[in-house]
Amino acid sequence: MDDITVHRHVLDELEYAPMIDAAQIGVTVENGIVTLTGHVRNYAEKGIAERVTLRVRGVRGVVERITVRYPDDPAVGDEALAERCARVIEWDARVPRDSVTLKVEKGCVTLQGCVPYYHQKAAVDKALRRLAGVTDIVNLIAVKPPARAAEVKDRILAALRRSARDPDTIRVHVDGDKVTLDGCVDVWRERELAERAAWSAPGVRAVDDRLTLAC
Known about the structure:
single chain, about 220 residues, alpha/beta, Histidine-containing Protein, Chain: A, GMP Synthetase, Chain A, domain 3, four-stranded mixed β-sheet, 6 helices, about 30% strand
């Protein structure tokens, strides 16, 4: 698919998304790589814009350069924002107690610590992204301990068999705490399922998704 068509489809998809103001987002496309610019009203909208763009056929990757502006809200000081973030993490039952620390600088929240599963690391990010005052999140939370490679691979393949229509087209390689997914899928949803299965395995800290869509 040519870049002009991809550009038009991305604009249409952003316009269709009800939670973002597409008029404030700029889109350029080069060789299937989409660059998003402009500004949004909160950090959560940055993630929405990126996910909406990725689901457009022909998009090979996204470079996200969107900034966050809070035109209608008073500025939130870093100290107050850090207190809000700490309370949200403390109240989230998915996150082990005292496993995460944070630092706030000019609205950018840096997270550090260690949790047993990737979904717990993602839960912290998800819990904070809608807070007023957050302009960016740097998630440095480690996922430990690493599981045995054979166990991780078996869990991923079992999850793929439960979810994907043809998991035999997906190859899984485990090297320590890194999982590499290779092969071919019929639709983008199957690629998301495979990646989610890899991240859900205990001890996984990195996933290299090399899956391609079938022609």
